[in-house]
Specification:
Elements lengths: L34 E4 L2 E4 H14 L4 E4 L1 H4 L4 H15 L5 E2 L24 H7 L3 E5 L3 H14 L3 E5 L10 E3 L4 H16 L15 H9 L13 H13 L7
Parallel strand pairs: 3-4, 3-5, 5-6, 6-7
Antiparallel strand pairs: 1-2, 1-7
Helix pairs in contact: 1-6, 3-6
Length: 251
């Protein structure tokens, strides 16, 4: 491996405080191809994937956060990654999937909790009591801010599966994360289970959200409520509002 990390600083679940130091300032390097990063230490890619798999299987409320670079399907590369992404989800009992389709701030007014807090991602972690999460398909500049905020105020074990150079502020990270490496992550989940790691939510499938989750908790058949659907007239009106845009001078 090309990099050797001798720093004693460890990137571990917080809360670390209001302003945690950036891991790079503390001497944590980025991994190169074939390497991974675990708690601020350079490892092999395989070790990083297995550490990530173990965290997602054993910590409370594991959650996948797919970002726009996967769910928008804007090129062939992102579409290739989407299919094995669901294979990963199926190997994590009790996993939740909270998509981040568009985290650009909405001005001039914003309700952070209503739009999955694009400015304050730690709110999602807090409210859902998430102790392990994966960021995948999230723009690097947004992930950099997000990971620091999560480490500052929560005890969540963050995993950044990055299409570029990786993220030193995550507890585990692997760079150049293409579709093939998504499959390797799936295989790592299968491997650690075979090696004796018992999933915390063994026997549970993917946890649905919203109305489907509420129905399941009540023991009811999950039927989408009428108010959750948008009829043609309302949909047309909503589209018109988007074309018009927001009045930034409104009080």
């Amino acid at each position: 491996m090309g990099n050797v990390n001798a720093t004693p600083y460890r990137v571990v679940p917080g809360p670390e405080g209001l302003l945690p130091p950036a891991a790079t300032i503390m001497g944590v390097p980025l991994p190169e191809e074939g390497e991974g990063l675990v708690e601020g230490r350079i490892t092999t890619e395989e070790e990083a994937l297995e550490a990530a798999a173990t965290a997602m299987l054993t910590r409370k409320n594991p959650t996948l956060f797919p970002g726009p670079m996967i769910i928008w399907g804007w090129n062939e590369h992102t579409r290739e990654k989407a299919q094995p992404f669901f294979e990963v989800a199926n190997e994590i009992p009790g996993v939740r999937i909270i998509p981040m389709p568009d985290y650009r701030p909405i001005y001039p007014k914003i309700d952070p909790e209503a739009v999955i807090n694009p400015c304050h991602p730690n709110l999602t972690i807090w409210h859902n009591k998430i102790e392990a999460c994966v960021l995948i398909g999230v723009h690097c500049h947004y992930a950099n801010i997000t990971l620091k905020m999560i480490r500052a105020g929560t005890n969540c074990y963050t995993i950044a599966l990055c299409a570029e150079a990786g993220h030193e502020d995550a507890m585990a990270s692997v760079p150049n994360f293409d579709a093939e490496k998504v499959v390797r992550f799936r295989d790592a989940l299968i491997k650690v289970k075979k090696n004796g790691i018992k999933p915390l939510y063994e026997g549970t499938g993917i946890i649905p959200s919203g109305w489907a989750q509420i129905a399941k908790l009540k023991g009811e058949i999950p039927i989408k409520p009428r108010e959750a659907s948008i009829d043609g007239e309302a949909r047309g009106a909503f589209s018109h509002e988007l074309v018009t845009g927001l009045d930034e001078t409104a009080e």
